[in-house]
Amino acid sequence: MMITIETERLILRPQTITDFDVWYPMYADPQIFHVTNSPGFTPEEGWNRILRNIGHWSTFGFGIFSIFQKTDGIFLGETGLANFHRGIDAGFDNCAEASWVISRAAQSRGIAKEAAEAAHQWYVDSFAPSRTVCLIVKHHPASIHVAEYLGYRIYDEYLYKGAECFKLECLWEK
């Protein structure tokens, strides 16, 4: 499935296995995941994660996009919506869950907002959901700010893999 979304500065497209070499360093960077108490991924965990993301597109028709800078093709991160099936509760797990991870070099430039907004617009136009959700670690104000920019509001708290998180939802008009 080769959907391509272009914004003023970015190109988003579904992840492919050829992204692994530029994608994995972001997921192996412990500074990216310091807020979740996660050390980052081993190569095997990263390989399994990107394979999951690729397979998600063929199963559900939506998923995680790789984000590239339009001017030079540099990889900046990932965003999209997916069915992560975390086992949180039926109200959460039965909705598409928003996600964004931006490489350290691309942070603080509005990339997450621009990319996530474009991915959400595509998803809403394509699937007309009534609700989407996301899970964000409580002490990650930058990510909470992106979620609020997109229209998400905190509705509950949840302990996920030892991290105190907020459950957020966005209600979409049909």
UniProtKB/TrEMBL annotation:
Entry keyword set: Acyltransferase, Transferase
SUPFAM superfamilies per the UniProt record, alphabetical: Acyl-CoA N-acyltransferases (Nat) (SSF55729)
Pfam families per the UniProt record, alphabetical: Acetyltransf_3
Domain of life: Bacteria
Enzyme class: transferase
InterPro entries per UniProt: Acyl_CoA_acyltransferase, GNAT_dom, N-acetyltransferase
EC identifiers of the protein: 2.3.1.-
MF GO annotations: acyltransferase activity, transferring groups other than amino-acyl groups
Domain N-acetyltransferase residue range list: 10-174
Annotated protein name in UniProt: GNAT family acetyltransferase
Organism of origin: Buttiauxella brennerae ATCC 51605
Phylogenetic placement of the source organism: Bacteria, Pseudomonadati, Pseudomonadota, Gammaproteobacteria, Enterobacterales
